[in-house]
Design a protein that fits this description.
There is one protein chain. With 255 residues, this protein is of the alpha/beta class. Helix 10 links the parallel strand 7 and strand 8. It has a six-stranded parallel sheet, with helices on both faces. It has a three-stranded antiparallel sheet with strand order 5-4-6, with helices on one face. It is built from eleven helices and nine strands. It is 38% helix and 16% strand. The longest helix is centred in the N-terminal third of the chain and has 15 residues. The mean pLDDT is 96. Bound molecules: ligand BJW.
């Protein structure tokens, strides 16, 4: 990794007034959480998203989809924040208005200590009624429900129909308050760090382009070229768990 790029990133961050970070699955890869689209080990290389991550899939085979998310929870349960999450939490200490906008559902930013986190795609550790029978959303605490765990999703305690994970599937609207908050912060952003996203899923994929349109500088952290690279002013082509701590060190050298 070019040391000049590390220094340039640190200089841009130091001079920023509103620092915003957009993260995707790549930021959690070094914690052992699989990405979606990496060719060999991404989830969608092994599983078909149309059969697992849509309302239609859940209506067609609720047990298959529920079991897939239980499998994902088992994969994520031992995961711990990696140096990229830790560096972002440390960066928030230095820049208290810094905002993370994440597509991730794994909670690792919060575990690392980040406070200002906008979650675009929900939270795998939470559940809700598939029909939102008590209003949108209808959260359900499944630890209070007794049901046969081999039979698929638990019954909603209010309406008796299915409980589902509180994540955003393809074709679903994003949580409106989170999306609104993201749009507001992007309009104010002068430096955006884009970390570990392929930039193919809307509306998150447009956010760096919108930030750029509003005059922001975009710094990408990704070992592989993405849909964001064409709009990036600076591309740190390395795993985020390696590049972000080095940017932090470069910031600390000039305090
Ligand atoms: C590293 C690294 C390391 C590796 N360090 N980096 C046609 C055109 C435009 C839009 C649409 C369209 N047809 C349908 C749509 C809308 C659709 C969409 O965008 N589809 C596209 C795929 C075409 N979007 C939606 O449906 C969204 N809702 C919506 O738009 O509502 C309005 C609407 C509805 C209907 C029609 C039209 C409009 C909802 C999207 C929900 C996404 N949900 C998922 C699943 C969440 C639950 C779960 O986990 O199961 O969210 S899909 C999946 O993709 C997940 C992720 O958050 C999301 C983004 O993936 P991400 O994070 O970018 O991961 P990867 O794997 O793609 O990339 C990882 C990157 O990390 C790579 O670049 C690596 O190189 C890098 N990396 N190691 C740093 N160590």
């Amino acid at each position: 990794m070019n040391p000049q790029f590390i220094q340039q990133a640190a200089d841009l961050i130091r001079a920023s007034k509103q620092l915003t970070v957009l993260t995707g699955a790549g930021v959690s890869k070094e914690s052992g959480v699989p990405t979606f689209r990496d060719a060999l080990d991404g989830l969608w290389a092994q599983y078909d998203p149309k059969r697992l991550a849509t309302q239609f899939a859940f209506e067609t085979d609720p047990k298959l989809v529920w079991d897939f998310y239980e499998f994902r929870r088992d994969l994520m349960r031992p995961a711990k924040p990696n140096p990229a999450h830790v560096s972002l939490a440390a960066l928030e200490q230095r820049f208290p208005t810094m905002q993370i906008i994440t597509q991730n559902i794994d909670n690792l930013h919060e575990q690392a200590g980040s406070k200002n986190v906008i979650r675009l795609h929900g939270n795998i550790w939470a559940n809700k009624c598939f029909y939102d029978c008590q209003g949108e959303p209808t959260p359900v605490d499944i630890s209070t429900i007794g049901w046969d765990r081999n039979s698929g999703p638990p019954p909603c305690p209010y309406c008796g129909r299915w409980v589902r994970p509180d994540v955003v599937w393809f074709g679903e609207m994003l949580p409106p308050d989170q999306l609104r908050a993201a749009k507001e912060v992007i309009a104010q952003t002068d430096v955006m760090l884009v970390i570990g996203t392929s930039g193919v899923v809307q509306p998150a994929a447009d956010m760096p382009y919108i930030a750029k349109y509003h005059g922001a500088t975009v710094i990408e952290f990704n070992p592989v070229e993405s849909e964001i690279t064409p709009v990036a002013d600076l591309w740190l082509q390395a795993p985020a768990g390696e590049s972000l701590p080095r940017v932090l060190e470069a910031l600390d050298e000039h305090v």
